[in-house]
Amino acid sequence: MKKYSKLIWILRCVLAVIPFLMMDRALRVATNCGGWYSMDKLPPSLFSLGFGALFVCLALLPRRRGRLAYGLIYGVWMIYAVVQYSVWRIFDRFLFLSDFMLAGEGLDFAGYVGQLVDQRYIKVLLTFLLWGVIGTLLLPPSSAGVRRKACPVLLTVFFAAQIIAPRLYDPVPEELGWDAWAISGYEYENFTSSTYDVALAGPYQFVFRDAWLSIRPDPAEQEKLEEISVFLEERPAHTENEMTGLLRGKNLVMVQLESIDDFVLNEENTPTLAKMQREGINFSEFYTPQYSNGYTFNTEFAAQTGVYPYANGNVAYSLSRSAFPYSMASLLGQEGYTARSFHKSEAQFYNRGAMHRAFGYEQYYSALDQTGDDLAASVDSFLIDTDALYSRMADSKPFVDFIITYSGHLGYDEKDALTTYALERYPAYRDDSRPYEINGLFAKARMTDDMFTRLLERLEEDGVLADTVFCVYDDHYAYGVTDRAVLEEYSEAAGGRLLERTPCFIWYPGCKPQTVTKTLQTVDLLPTLANLFGLPEPPTMGRDAFDPAYPGYAVFPNGTWLTDQAYVEKGEIRWNDGMTEEEIAEMSAFAQRFREVNDAILDTDYYARVQKN
Q: 345 — alpha (psi -120 to 50), left (phi > 0) or beta?
């Protein structure tokens, strides 16, 4: 009888491990991780079984305390899984640990997440919960003697999984090709794509490996510095062109739009912006690749520095002390410009107070610092109508201002107070023939357009407009529209080849209208502006749009790239209009190298070293 009881205890102990594996598999199935790494592959399941054994070992406590410990451990991981599932539903990717540092900014998404709760969401949530209840009931009571026998076995399972699972990935060849990202062993070593990484390792190993990679020393630092130097030296030298120095000495206002997608910016929704785009220098094939999960700050960082943030984490906290002497504010600051930045949110969101100083801005100004009314601060015109803010924009010449709009921020449904306000302010956008979210998106865009109208008026009144240049670009496509089919329908109608195609133009009084059709990306903004203002091309990842030696391309973090001639997504040719197989292979290899050098610049604080030399 005693032997029978012991077998039952062992069986219950083994079965208590299973819920952690099932939660892992439920998350991977719900998020279609099998599209990245087959669900039949052993490594992620081995990792999860190993962690399940570790968690059961930690929960083997006397009497009811064991079940309480098990429930707490499982509950923490279930909350993590629910958060990651919600994020995946919004962004089609997961969060790295560093992204969770943006929790304050994430509160803006709380109401939006409520829109995701459908039958599928509830099924996933109930599946997680059911396995937790089963595991808690299965866990047997423990004693000191039992723990002494069971814990070594459970820990052996955990460490065996850590040793065996990584050896089951595809080996990394000595010579890497352009498609190295597709090799499971290579991706596990580098951890650059969150969705791929969860598919490879399961959620538990994903968290612990991400933590380890974020703190380990970098033995390849010198090699990375050499790689950066070679990459920059191999590029064709910048060629002066008819646009070089065209705007030298003028004031500059850089405006990053919030969710004003290519199909949103038009004569009906944004008449002032549409007029500026039509009369200015319009970059019709401009793309905003999303490397970091913080989509707004992703583009903010890339446009200001000419370098993309890490794909496996947000730089807002990790790089606030890094040097960016080639940012636009830093370059113009060296020319005697006053540099300031403006936005709704407080300085701690995305760590803007520190990051904008790193970008070269003297001060970051928040609309919320001027009012306790969140709704009032969310209306972009508040930045211009509030004298305490506007006076800082043009009180010292020459100046470079950076304005980040907010009114277009998600969500766009009936629950969003700003959407309700916008539709009350502009009842003409209550169009029953369109989805409610599209009406909300368009009405919010109109509020951003009102800000431009007011800003142009005030600058004209102050006699400053004639000497001021506007560089206007969008932070990301309108991913806040929850119905993906609706979003793709509207974006396709606008003629975009990818959802990431967004508006970008430069306007100033007397500008000669022109359209640049070359494929461009966010990091190209900085060197393009540097050329227009007569500054040397900065040694960043971007190139001057007007340089005839630059063919134009956009490189995305998952191995995708786009040129005027071809679009290759994760190694698969989506369309090709004249590139040979050899040219496609060369561009694919370059895209991989581009991403490696980009990260190496961040890893080594490269620009601080350039300054010292």
A: beta
Give the pTM. 0.77
Q: Which two tokens stand for residue 589?
A: 């290899």
Percent of all residues in the chain with a pLDDT value above 70, rounded to a whole number: 92
DSSP for residue 517: -
DSSP three-state, residue 538: coil
Distance of alpha carbon 284 from its chain centroid, rounded? 22
- Sorted by where each begins, the domain ranges of the chain are 2-215, 246-540
Distance CA 38, CA 22 (A): 16
- Contact present, 227 and 596 (Cβ < 8 Å): yes
d(CA 599, CA 313): 11
pLDDT at 31 > cutoff 80: yes
CA-CA distance, 306 to 320, in Å (whole number)?
A: 16
Tokens standing for 252?
Answer: 């500059």
Q: Which run of H or of E encompasses 566?
A: strand 566-569
- Euclidean distance between CA atoms 300 and 280, whole angstroms: 22
In which residue are the tokens 């808690």 written?
136
Res. 247: pLDDT tops 90: yes
**How many C-beta atoms lie closer than 10 Å to residue 7's C-beta?**
10
CA distance linking residue 544 with residue 525, whole number of Å: 8
Q: What is the pLDDT of residues 456-467, one digit of tens each?
A: 999 999 999 999
pLDDT over 80 (residue 611): no
442, 478 Cβ separation under 8 angstroms: no
d(CA 386, CA 538): 35
CATH superfamily of 246-540: Alkaline Phosphatase, subunit A (3.40.720.10)
Arithmetic mean of pLDDT over the chain: 90
